[in-house]
Amino acid sequence: MRYRPGQEVRVAARPHVGHHRTPAYLKGKTGTVMRVHPSFLNPESRANGKDGLPKQPLYFVSFQQSDIWPEYRGDPADRLYVDVFEHWLDDAG
Amino acid sequence: MERAVHDRGGWPTDAPIDRSEHELDDWEILMDSLLGALEKRSAVNVDEFRRGIESMSPSAYEAATYYERWLYSVETILTEKGVLTPGELDARLAK
After folding, report:
1. Closest alpha carbon within chain B to A51
2. Which residue of A19, A40, A41, A44 to mutate against B (max B Cβ within 10 Å)?
3. Domain of A59?
Protein backbone atom coordinates (compact mmCIF):
# COMPACT_ATOMS: atom_id res chain seq x y z
CA MET A 1 0.00 0.00 0.00
CA ARG A 2 1.10 3.50 -0.78
CA TYR A 3 0.21 5.52 2.35
CA ARG A 4 0.84 5.27 6.07
CA PRO A 5 -0.95 6.77 9.08
CA GLY A 6 -0.05 10.43 9.50
CA GLN A 7 0.46 11.10 5.79
CA GLU A 8 -1.33 13.99 4.10
CA VAL A 9 -3.38 12.94 1.10
CA ARG A 10 -5.53 14.77 -1.42
CA VAL A 11 -8.68 13.23 -2.87
CA ALA A 12 -8.54 13.24 -6.66
CA ALA A 13 -10.84 15.87 -8.18
CA ARG A 14 -11.64 13.82 -11.28
CA PRO A 15 -15.23 13.07 -12.22
CA HIS A 16 -16.31 9.45 -12.61
CA VAL A 17 -18.81 7.82 -14.90
CA GLY A 18 -20.53 4.86 -13.27
CA HIS A 19 -20.54 3.68 -9.68
CA HIS A 20 -17.89 4.85 -7.23
CA ARG A 21 -17.62 5.40 -3.51
CA THR A 22 -15.97 8.82 -3.42
CA PRO A 23 -18.49 11.54 -2.51
CA ALA A 24 -18.47 14.78 -4.50
CA TYR A 25 -17.96 16.93 -1.42
CA LEU A 26 -14.54 15.31 -0.81
CA LYS A 27 -13.11 15.75 -4.28
CA GLY A 28 -9.99 17.89 -4.25
CA LYS A 29 -9.91 18.03 -0.43
CA THR A 30 -6.86 17.28 1.68
CA GLY A 31 -6.92 15.05 4.73
CA THR A 32 -4.73 12.89 6.96
CA VAL A 33 -4.52 9.10 6.88
CA MET A 34 -5.50 7.82 10.31
CA ARG A 35 -5.55 4.09 9.66
CA VAL A 36 -5.07 1.58 6.87
CA HIS A 37 -8.00 -0.79 6.44
CA PRO A 38 -7.73 -4.15 4.69
CA SER A 39 -8.00 -4.16 0.89
CA PHE A 40 -11.36 -4.74 -0.78
CA LEU A 41 -12.64 -5.74 -4.20
CA ASN A 42 -12.87 -2.64 -6.36
CA PRO A 43 -16.54 -1.57 -6.36
CA GLU A 44 -16.10 0.37 -9.60
CA SER A 45 -15.34 -2.66 -11.75
CA ARG A 46 -17.47 -4.99 -9.66
CA ALA A 47 -20.45 -2.74 -10.37
CA ASN A 48 -20.05 -3.68 -14.02
CA GLY A 49 -20.01 -7.43 -13.69
CA LYS A 50 -16.22 -7.79 -13.30
CA ASP A 51 -14.47 -9.57 -10.43
CA GLY A 52 -13.23 -6.38 -8.72
CA LEU A 53 -9.59 -7.51 -8.81
CA PRO A 54 -7.02 -6.30 -7.99
CA LYS A 55 -8.25 -5.45 -4.51
CA GLN A 56 -7.82 -1.82 -3.53
CA PRO A 57 -6.38 -0.67 -0.20
CA LEU A 58 -8.88 1.38 1.79
CA TYR A 59 -7.88 4.20 4.12
CA PHE A 60 -9.58 5.83 7.07
CA VAL A 61 -8.97 9.51 6.34
CA SER A 62 -9.60 12.51 8.58
CA PHE A 63 -10.70 15.85 7.13
CA GLN A 64 -11.22 19.19 8.80
CA GLN A 65 -14.93 20.07 8.64
CA SER A 66 -14.10 23.71 7.88
CA ASP A 67 -12.06 22.58 4.85
CA ILE A 68 -15.03 20.72 3.43
CA TRP A 69 -17.82 23.16 4.18
CA PRO A 70 -16.80 26.78 3.49
CA GLU A 71 -19.55 28.13 5.73
CA TYR A 72 -18.97 25.69 8.56
CA ARG A 73 -19.83 27.35 11.87
CA GLY A 74 -19.08 24.51 14.27
CA ASP A 75 -15.99 24.02 16.39
CA PRO A 76 -12.89 24.59 14.23
CA ALA A 77 -11.48 21.36 15.64
CA ASP A 78 -14.38 19.29 14.26
CA ARG A 79 -13.29 16.59 11.85
CA LEU A 80 -14.98 14.25 9.42
CA TYR A 81 -13.73 10.69 8.96
CA VAL A 82 -14.29 8.95 5.63
CA ASP A 83 -13.10 5.66 4.12
CA VAL A 84 -11.41 6.37 0.78
CA PHE A 85 -9.90 3.88 -1.68
CA GLU A 86 -6.24 4.25 -2.59
CA HIS A 87 -6.79 4.96 -6.26
CA TRP A 88 -8.72 8.10 -5.29
CA LEU A 89 -5.82 9.50 -3.24
CA ASP A 90 -2.72 11.48 -4.17
CA ASP A 91 0.25 12.42 -2.00
CA ALA A 92 -0.27 15.90 -0.50
CA GLY A 93 2.65 15.90 1.92
CA MET B 1 -18.09 19.67 -9.19
CA GLU B 2 -20.87 18.03 -11.14
CA ARG B 3 -22.53 15.29 -9.14
CA ALA B 4 -25.10 12.59 -9.65
CA VAL B 5 -28.49 12.84 -7.97
CA HIS B 6 -27.70 10.21 -5.33
CA ASP B 7 -24.41 11.87 -4.34
CA ARG B 8 -25.98 14.48 -2.09
CA GLY B 9 -23.79 15.03 0.95
CA GLY B 10 -23.79 18.80 1.44
CA TRP B 11 -26.48 19.34 -1.18
CA PRO B 12 -27.87 22.84 -0.45
CA THR B 13 -31.50 22.86 0.67
CA ASP B 14 -33.76 24.82 2.96
CA ALA B 15 -36.18 21.92 3.31
CA PRO B 16 -36.31 20.39 6.78
CA ILE B 17 -35.15 16.78 7.12
CA ASP B 18 -38.12 14.41 7.21
CA ARG B 19 -37.42 12.17 10.20
CA SER B 20 -40.85 10.57 10.30
CA GLU B 21 -41.09 6.79 10.43
CA HIS B 22 -43.61 4.70 8.51
CA GLU B 23 -44.87 1.15 8.67
CA LEU B 24 -43.35 -0.99 5.94
CA ASP B 25 -45.71 -2.46 3.40
CA ASP B 26 -45.51 -6.20 2.76
CA TRP B 27 -43.94 -5.66 -0.66
CA GLU B 28 -41.18 -3.58 0.90
CA ILE B 29 -40.28 -6.37 3.30
CA LEU B 30 -40.35 -8.83 0.38
CA MET B 31 -38.13 -6.51 -1.64
CA ASP B 32 -35.58 -6.52 1.15
CA SER B 33 -35.50 -10.31 1.39
CA LEU B 34 -35.45 -10.67 -2.40
CA LEU B 35 -32.26 -8.65 -2.68
CA GLY B 36 -30.72 -10.66 0.15
CA ALA B 37 -31.52 -13.89 -1.68
CA LEU B 38 -30.17 -12.59 -4.99
CA GLU B 39 -26.92 -11.50 -3.33
CA LYS B 40 -26.53 -14.79 -1.51
CA ARG B 41 -26.82 -16.67 -4.80
CA SER B 42 -24.44 -14.24 -6.51
CA ALA B 43 -27.13 -13.17 -8.97
CA VAL B 44 -26.57 -9.51 -8.06
CA ASN B 45 -23.74 -7.94 -6.07
CA VAL B 46 -24.04 -4.83 -3.93
CA ASP B 47 -22.00 -2.68 -6.31
CA GLU B 48 -24.19 -3.61 -9.28
CA PHE B 49 -27.20 -2.93 -7.11
CA ARG B 50 -25.93 0.52 -6.23
CA ARG B 51 -25.08 1.24 -9.86
CA GLY B 52 -28.65 0.31 -10.76
CA ILE B 53 -30.06 2.86 -8.33
CA GLU B 54 -27.59 5.49 -9.47
CA SER B 55 -28.63 4.96 -13.08
CA MET B 56 -32.11 6.33 -12.38
CA SER B 57 -32.94 9.64 -14.01
CA PRO B 58 -32.87 12.50 -11.48
CA SER B 59 -36.64 12.98 -11.74
CA ALA B 60 -37.39 9.26 -11.27
CA TYR B 61 -34.93 9.08 -8.39
CA GLU B 62 -36.54 12.03 -6.62
CA ALA B 63 -40.06 10.66 -7.14
CA ALA B 64 -39.28 7.13 -5.94
CA THR B 65 -39.44 5.87 -2.38
CA TYR B 66 -36.57 3.95 -0.81
CA TYR B 67 -37.74 0.47 -1.80
CA GLU B 68 -39.05 1.63 -5.16
CA ARG B 69 -35.42 2.47 -5.94
CA TRP B 70 -34.44 -1.04 -4.88
CA LEU B 71 -37.09 -2.52 -7.15
CA TYR B 72 -35.96 -0.33 -10.04
CA SER B 73 -32.37 -1.46 -9.61
CA VAL B 74 -33.08 -5.17 -9.22
CA GLU B 75 -35.30 -5.17 -12.31
CA THR B 76 -32.67 -3.21 -14.26
CA ILE B 77 -29.74 -5.46 -13.29
CA LEU B 78 -31.66 -8.73 -13.75
CA THR B 79 -32.87 -7.56 -17.17
CA GLU B 80 -29.31 -6.58 -18.09
CA LYS B 81 -28.15 -10.08 -17.15
CA GLY B 82 -30.92 -11.80 -19.08
CA VAL B 83 -32.59 -13.25 -15.97
CA LEU B 84 -35.65 -11.18 -16.84
CA THR B 85 -36.69 -10.16 -20.32
CA PRO B 86 -37.59 -6.50 -20.93
CA GLY B 87 -41.17 -5.89 -19.83
CA GLU B 88 -41.51 -9.33 -18.25
CA LEU B 89 -42.45 -8.01 -14.81
CA ASP B 90 -45.02 -5.61 -16.24
CA ALA B 91 -46.55 -8.38 -18.34
CA ARG B 92 -46.77 -10.73 -15.34
CA LEU B 93 -48.28 -8.01 -13.16
CA ALA B 94 -50.92 -7.25 -15.80
CA LYS B 95 -52.23 -10.83 -15.65
Report:
1. B45
2. A19
3. 8-91
The number of domains in chain A is 1
Which chain B residues contact residue A68 at CB under 8 A? 10
pTM of the model: 0.90
**Where residue A74 sits, what CATH number does that domain have?**
2.30.30.50
Residue type at B94 in one-letter notation: A
Kindly write down the DSSP assignment for every residue of B39-95, as one continuous string.
HHTTSS-HHHHHHHHHTS-HHHHHHS-HHHHHHHHHHHHHHHTTSS-TTHHHHHHH-
Whether residue A24 and residue B9 make contact (CB cut-off 8 A), yes or no, is: yes
Residue contact A44–B9, C-beta within 8 A: no
Binned average pLDDT, 10 residues per bin, chain A of 93 residues: 96 94 97 98 96 97 96 95 98 89
- Residue burial B28-47, b: 16+ Cβ < 10 Å; e: rest: beebeeebeebeeeeebbeb
Query: Does some domain include residue A2?
Result: no
pLDDT for B11 beyond 70: yes
